[in-house]
Amino acid sequence: MSEPNWWVLISKHWGKILGGLLGLIFAVLVINYGFWLSVFIFFCIAVGLLVGWRLDVSQNVGRFLNRLFSSDNN
Fold this sequence. Notes:
Blueprint: H1 6-12, H2 14-33, H3 35-58, H4 61-69
Helix pairs in contact: 2-3
């Protein structure tokens, strides 16, 4: 019997693996900190990922920060 190719297995099932890991992390956070603090932590992570993604896409940090913190609605 041959050994499984781990990279092929992970790439084929990466969504299930990521979902399972996120569920495990959330469960540990709920046990240690409570439900609402865990939700707040995940919200902060999501906002951080969104900002990082926008910075990666736009490649213009100054313009992005001006739009993010400007008081204009334009």
